[in-house]
Design brief:
Blueprint (H helix, E strand, L loop, with lengths): L2 E4 L16 H13 L4 E4 L13 H11 L4 E5 L2 H4 L2 H10 L6 E5 L5 H11 L2 E6 L2 H8 L9 E5 L5 H18 L5 E4 L5 H11 L2 E4 L16 H13 L4
Parallel strand pairs: 1-2, 1-8, 2-3, 3-4, 4-5, 5-6, 6-7, 7-8
Helix pairs in contact: 1-2, 1-9, 4-5, 6-7, 8-9
Length: about 240
C-alpha cells in the first residue's frame, strides 16, 4: 500500500496556482511530495511552451531523480500527448534517461505495441484500466503477467456507478488470475472515495493535481504536498 503523487497530468495552465509545469517546478514539487509521504511520483513532462511532451522525458526524469534520489518516477504515454502513434513510439524509443515505469491506457488502439516497446527498453508498465473492456483487453495479452502494476483509474463521477466499474475490473483480473499490484484512483469528485476504498482493500492509491485539487473536506488544497499529506493520513487509518 503506497500513496503515489500525480503532480500535474494534462491539467491546463490555469487549473491551480501551484500546478508544476516547468522541469524545475516538477523537481521541487516532487521533493515536497516525497517529504510529505509519497512513495512514488507520476508526472507528465512538459516542453518549454508548457505543453505535454514525450521528448521532454530525459531532462525531466534527470532533474526529478536528482531532487528525489531513490524514489520511483513514472510518466504517461497517453496517445493525446503526441497525437500520432508512430511519433509516440519514436519518442519512447529515443529515451536515454529512462523512467522507472510508464502508464499505458488499455483503451488506446496502440496500447499493446507501446507495452511491448516499454518492456523492450526496460521500463515497467503501469497498465491503465478505466473500464471492464480495458481489463479484458489486458488479460488477453500474452505478456500481461509482466506488467509492473495495474492502474484502475475511474473517470466516472457518480459514486455508485464508479464503484461498480472498479468492482467489474477487479473481477476480470481475479478471474484471469492476474495477480499484480493494484493502484486505484478516482478523478475530481471521486478522488477521496477511491482513496478510502483503496485503504479498505489494501491497494495502493494516488492523489495530486492531475486527479483533483480539493481536499477530503472540500476546500482547495494549497499544493500537491498537502493532498499527499491528507492521503497518507487516511491510508494509515487502516492500521489504527
Amino acid at each position: 500500500m503506497i500513496v503515489q503523487a500525480c503532480i500535474n497530468g494534462a491539467r491546463p495552465f490555469d487549473y491551480h496556482p501551484a500546478l508544476p509545469l516547468t522541469v524545475e517546478a516538477m523537481a521541487r514539487d516532487s521533493a515536497a511530495c516525497v517529504a510529505a509521504g509519497a512513495a512514488e511520483i507520476h508526472l507528465h513532462p512538459r516542453a518549454a511552451d508548457g505543453q505535454e511532451s514525450l521528448a521532454a522525458v530525459d531532462e525531466t526524469i534527470r532533474l526529478v531523480r536528482r531532487a528525489c534520489p531513490g524514489t520511483l518516477v513514472g510518466v504517461s504515454t497517453g496517445a493525446w500527448i503526441e497525437g500520432d502513434q508512430r511519433r509516440t513510439r519514436d519518442y519512447i524509443a529515443a529515451w536515454r534517461v529512462l523512467p522507472d515505469y510508464a502508464s499505458v491506457n488499455l483503451s488506446e488502439a496502440d496500447a499493446p505495441a507501446v507495452i511491448d516497446l516499454l518492456h523492450g527498453i526496460g521500463v515497467g508498465v503501469e497498465a491503465g484500466l478505466a473500464s471492464v473492456e480495458d481489463a479484458r483487453r489486458l488479460v488477453a495479452l500474452a505478456d500481461c503477467q509482466r506488467v509492473f502494476r495495474i492502474l484502475i483509474e475511474i473517470d466516472e463521477q457518480e459514486l455508485s456507478t464508479a464503484g461498480r466499474i472498479a468492482d467489474g475490473i477487479a473481477a476480470v483480473l481475479a478471474e484471469a488470475g492476474l495477480a499484480r499490484p493494484i493502484l486505484l484512483h478516482g478523478f475530481d469528485a471521486t478522488v477521496w472515495h477511491f482513496v478510502d476504498l483503496a485503504r479498505q482493500r489494501r491497494w495502493s492509491t494516488r492523489v495530486g493535481l492531475e486527479d483533483g485539487c480539493h481536499r477530503a473536506q472540500g476546500d482547495v488544497a494549497r499544493n500537491n504536498a498537502q493532498l499527499v499529506t491528507d492521503a497518507v493520513r487516511m491510508m494509515r487509518q487502516y492500521a489504527s
